[in-house]
Structures are given as structure tokens and as C-alpha cells.
Amino acid sequence: MKDVTPLPPAVIVWSGKGGVGKSTVAAQTARGLAALGVRTGYLDADLHGPSAATLFGVEERLAVRGRRIVPTVRDGVAIASTSMIADPDHAYVWRGPLMRGVLSQLFHDTDWTCVDVLVVDMPPGTGEIQMQVLSDLTCLGAVVVTTPQDLSLADVRRSARMLLDADVPVTAVVENMASVACPSCACSFPPLPGDAGQHVHAIFPEAEFVRLPMSRPSGHTDPLAQALRPLVEKIADSLRLRPLSPC
After folding, report:
1. I need a labelling partner for 159 at 20 to 30 A (CA). Which of 15, 80, 147, 187 fits?
2. What is the pTM of this model?
3. How far apart are CA 190 and CA 176, in angstroms?
4. Which residues on adjacent β-strands are paired with residue 172?
């Protein structure tokens, strides 16, 4: 029988809608945890639209050693993504068993033994990948990402029901693109109409509520990283209550 190494607990970054900046939030959360000394892995479960290679500036392919996938390390984060197994212009067409098999390889055939927490970038929606992640991983918590518009709210509400039914605790609700700084003065203003973040937070009132500015990520001191700092510290504190994986 194949020896299966227990997987580290996961923080899943979740949204019912694409284009809300979920992958950027996931990457910055992973970088923030690594900066605090947490041994962090980043698993890109968005098989149809993988973006880890771009977000972390990775150009090389994933390595394989002894039939185990070896994550690529950037910014102190161990990363595995299908964006690192094919050319950038490759069309990802996954169906049924093939999709489940690829996801299982990212989970069970990747060397996560020196990782204390996996930050999982989820695809939008409530489909087969979400079901497999919730089945295969022990979810320490979920970060639900939305933008202010009502359209985002409708999709996120639907996907939130899946988290509630699976009894996954929601660590934070993140309203992305909530403000933008004027380039000519110190003032900021909302670039998008609506207050979807507050409505989603009402579903999960015990979660952190984080409003993120519209900003280009530029390291640990950029506005996104600073705004996410309370969330990152909350996740790190919860991990200190758990035994760490041997390495």
C-alpha cells in the first residue's frame, strides 16, 4: 500500500466569483505567514486558471524527486501549481477523473512534509474541486473574498452556504478593491459602488473584516500586506496552538 503522509492543515481562500482578487489575497497571506516564520505552502487549486507562477515570479517547472513533486520556494513559500508544469499559453482542459487525479497529485504526491500550513487558492464557484478540497484537507479556516458590488455579493452568498454546510470556520471576510488612493493627494475614495463586504460579514460576524485598497503588490510593506497583517497574525496565532510538523 502506498504510504500517505498526513497533509498539513489548510487555510482556503474562497470566493463564489472570479475576478475579485482572490489569488492576490492568497499569495499575500502566504507571504505574510512566511515573514512571521511560519513554514507555509501555497497550493494552487484553481486548475483552470492557475496564477501562482505569475504571482510569485516563477519561471521554472516543478521538479520531481523520487516520484514526489518538489514545491518551488519563493519569498519563503513552498509553491505547487499547474501553472508550473506547462507553457504559459497552454490551454488547461481538465475533465472529471483527470481533474480529480491532478488535484490528488498536488495534495498527496507533493512533498509538504516541511510545511505547517497550506494556503489554498480556490477556484470560483461551488463545484467538484471545492468538494474534493473540503473532503481531502483539514481546513483550519477560510478567507472569503468579495468586492463591493452587489453582483459579487450574490455569488459569494451562494458559495458561503457550502462553507456553512461543511462546518468550515471563516477566519476572515475580505472586501477587495474597497478604496483607491488619489495620486495627487492623500485622500482615498471607493472606486466601485456597493458594500458587499459588510453584507458577507453579517453572515460570518465572528470573522475578521478586512477592507483592502486597490494596489499593486510590492512586498511585505505594501498597502495590501499591511491591511492583511491582522488576518495573518490571527492565522499564525492559531497555528501556535497546534503541534508543528517534523522536518
Report:
1. 80
2. 0.89
3. 11
4. 143, 208
